[in-house]
Amino acid sequence: MFWPATIAMLGGVLFLGAAGIFLLAIQYHRHGRLSWRRTLTTGAAVIYGFGLFSYTMLPLPETRDAFCRPGVAVPQLQPLNFLNDFALSYELGMRHFLTSFTLWQVLFNVILFMPLGILAVRWLRGNVFLGTLIGLTASLAIELTQYTGIWGLYTCAYRVADVDDLLLNTFGALLGSMVAYLPIFAWLTGPREQSAMKSGPRKVTRLRRFMANGFDIAFVLGLVMLTTFVLEIAEKLGAPQASYNLTQRWIPTISVLLVFLLPTLMPGRASLGQRCAWIRVAGHGTRPAPAWQAVARSILGLGGISFAFQIADSIWAASPWAWLSALVLGYLLLSSIFLLCDPAGRGIAGRLTGTRFVDRRIH
């Protein structure tokens, strides 16, 4: 009972650590601001999703054919069969019934899906019908996955597909959808806000700029890691090994171009992270800066610094210009200090290029 919960917590925390910044970027782009309630509910939903997986799918068999034996994982297709098990257990006495695995398995199947109904009502702003329907759909998907051995990944089913589980899980989602209206679960509902596009412009603060920088760095690192992972999978499937120049130079370079420079050239004059934070580069007044100014700011700012760090190992380690590493670090430190001390908050790149950041919703 506790081992799957440990796996769920560990998996949820690791996932949030790796993908949390992307979830925040999506939230900010959608609502124009971050909400602690929305963030906590998203984290709870992620951990709960890992919990559903760990309790219904783990542990996985060691081999594809490990459970291919007669009488193993036979589907249970008789509805309400657990009532017969209740009767047999009760014949041995009330104490035996209350402590029996049969009773607690039924209760756990109900309890396991109650959070799904609560999240459907509070997080998705649904109702009792939607919460019950989501519970039914999720439970049916789980039972079919168990019945098919994770859709053919394993030769035989390794867990029992039980129609009673489907009924009890759905009832748990129904019960959760009903209790979700209690005030104790109000914190799970994020504030009602119109879409960020329809909201009025707000001042571009230093915190907002640092948050946009964090989104950009995450996008670059995520793109590099994803591309490298795909190449490794392709290599294991028989594709030629990726060259050093491709993995250490071209992939980082293209990632920086896709996140920083190309979006800056497009209408909107902003990197991907800046677009998530509703920021754009402006020239005189609030008009979008010319392309050359926006690109120059990106090169002198985080875009150029990110490019230098991404290809650091492939260039600095193999060249006589190792002092470039110290130079970039020094420029990064100087830029950060200047941004914090500059009364206008424009930073070195903004001063050198004659640009500044404004809210994208300013016309």
UniProtKB/TrEMBL annotation:
Q: Which organism is it from?
A: Glutamicibacter ardleyensis
- Which InterPro entries has this protein been placed in? RDD, Teicoplanin_resist-assoc, VanZ-like
* Primary location class: membrane
Q: Which residues form the RDD domain?
A: 207-318
One Pfam family cited in the UniProt record for this chain:
VanZ
Locate the VanZ-like domain: which residues?
A: 46-182
Q: Where in the cell is it found?
A: Membrane
Query: Per its record, how is this protein called by name?
Result: VanZ family protein
Q: Which UniProt keywords apply?
A: Membrane, Transmembrane, Transmembrane helix
Query: How does this chain sit within the bilayer?
Result: Multi-pass membrane protein
PANTHER family, per database record: INTEGRAL MEMBRANE PROTEIN (PTHR36834:SF1), MEMBRANE PROTEIN-RELATED (PTHR36834)
Query: Would the keyword Transcription turn up in this protein's UniProt record?
Result: no
Q: Which residues cross the membrane?
A: 6-28, 40-58, 101-121, 128-154, 166-189, 210-230, 250-268, 289-309, 321-341
Protein biosynthesis as a keyword of this entry, yes or no, is no
